[in-house]
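Researcher: Please translate sequence to structure tokens.
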Amino acid sequence: MELRDYLRILRAHWIALSLCLILGVVVAFAWTLIQPKVYTADASGYVTPVKAEGQNDSSSEYVSDNLAKSKVKSYVDVGTWRAVGEHAREELGLDVSPESLVRRVSVSNPLDTVVIKVDATGPTPEAARDLAGAWIRGMQIEIENIESGGTGVNPGITLVTADSARLPTTPSSPNVRLALAIGGLVGIVVGIGYALLRFTLDRRIRSAEGVERETGLNVVGAIPEEKSFTAENRLIPFDGANTSSSRNVHLYAVSEAVRELRTNIQFMDVDNPPRILVVTSPLPGEGKSTTAANLAITLSASGQRVVLIDGDLRRPMVATIFHLIGDAGLTDILAGRATFDDVAQPVGRSGSLRVVAAGKIPPNPSEILGSQRMRDLMETLSRDAVVIVDAPPLIPVTDAAVLTNRTDGAIIVTTVGRTTFDALKKAQQNLERAGGRALGVVLNRVPRKGSGAAYYGYQYTGAYYRTEDADTVPDLAPTPATAAVSRVVTVGGQVLPDGRRARRARR
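Model: Translation complete:
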């Protein structure tokens, strides 16, 4: 994966990252609350030779200074002696062992100096200060004993207290800022690990790249999620919602996505574009019927003659989507009870789109859809129009696979964040076993916001609307913006007003 892929993953799980960061900081802060407070005080002294009477010349001072520098490094070790701890214990009247006091003290010598620095810790500021001062004095006694040889003679080198211990104002441990920083860092690392693990284990379709990598199929369209779509109103308008004054301007993104799908289908084979398309999906509820209906509207809006056939003889939806008569349709044509002209219902003022409902649901849908009559019907219609067949899902039944064998190919509609790669592969295998051809995959309901949008990087960054409304085609399809359906349906040569139904004679 590239860097941008990792950034998408992190952006998709920014809530989890934030929670892990906050949790890490909270845990670190809670840890600091239960830790005992430790205060640190420091005291210092410097090693200096004891000058003899009359020793004031510069050469003597130079020798004494070099002597002190050579001795100071050795005297740092004196600060770790048990004897020094014994002096501090007696001076402060502490009921602890000298060894425990040694562990609370750190003695150091700054580079190229004769200074000895003592850092002492304690449970209170006063205890730390007193221990640092007592330790310096204990070292002073031990150094004088060493230099005098225990004879009481004035030593040649002594430790002079340079800076008395000061009372610390804040505890040195626990370090709250450092603990919070470490807690936040650990939280971020855990959050990143969680995001990458979720991405690795997530088998749901999230991106076009993932589909092409897993299946080898091309993604020919990506339709964004539209919250305003309902079971009754889920069609795009015939004007494409590309005018600034259109009441369906909120559907512009969906309309543009379907137009892009139309273009991709038309350019699959410039010399021999598909004439008979099956629109299906791996499982029910992926939005195949809505996609087929909107694709038919978009194709017809470009001036092509389009026939939309409801080939889902188990759960037909096309008539419901267009608010058309569903009692007569495909099954009546195949049974010889009606002709195509009898049951085909024109939609739109231009009449370039004709819709054939499913008709009565038969007991043997697969046999009917795979019959020679069905094949002859599609071939006849494809001579003058583009035929779109809304077929059942590929995994539950074989209807779509049987239909695709007799057509130019199938468009497989999937839902981002819901359809899994395993389901898509299974649908692809069912199609291939029947000798069908998958023309491509459509990603439906691509989120515009949230983690799904971050995964896919899907967004519309421009508003390419027309400002001229002179040539605008009136909205003829149901829209979620209006309760009344503005449409014209021609049945048997009769134009019906909105909301009315006509009974069709059968034969």
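Researcher: Any highlights?
Model: Residues 459-507 have pLDDT under 50 and may be disordered.
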